[in-house]
Design brief:
Layout lengths: L11 E7 L7 E6 L2 E4 L8 E7 L2 E7 L1 E5 L8 E7 L5 E3 L4 E9 L4 E5 L1
Parallel strand pairs: 1-3
Antiparallel strand pairs: 1-5, 2-3, 2-4, 4-5, 6-10, 7-8, 7-9, 9-10
Length: 113
């Protein structure tokens, strides 16, 4: 059986100054060229890939796997917001993201940022 993979499709990343972010979590803009962790319900700008010496790499576009809490997002375009713990959640607000895969056991989803 063929495995469908989305890694690296449309991936765009940039380096930002980091204020308390951790790799593998979603982040928000916190100032000129700086990102910070998102509070519950906030819109996120990307996924932190790595952190080093006050700077981090953030994936801004393309497909990425993110953790989610609460109700599993459906497939297709779904409004998502930060969950306050580094992942995302389905939200009546937030921004629409294309969800292409959901693993309910691991509570992870592949979304287009």
């Amino acid at each position: 059986m063929m495995k469908v993979a989305f890694e690296e499709i449309g991936r765009v990343a940039a380096t930002f100054a980091a204020d308390g972010v951790k790799a593998g979590t979603v982040c928000k803009m916190a100032g000129n060229g700086m990102v910070a962790p998102c509070a519950d319900g906030e819109e996120f700008v990307g996924l932190v890939e790595h952190v080093r010496k006050g700077f981090c790499g953030v994936q801004l576009h393309g497909f990425a796997q993110v953790a989610y809490t609460g109700t599993a997002p459906g497939l297709g375009y779904v409004n998502l917001a930060a969950n306050g713990g580094g992942g995302v959640k389905v939200s009546s607000g937030g921004r629409g993201h294309l969800v292409v895969a959901v693993d309910e056991n691991a509570m992870k989803a592949v979304i287009e940022l």
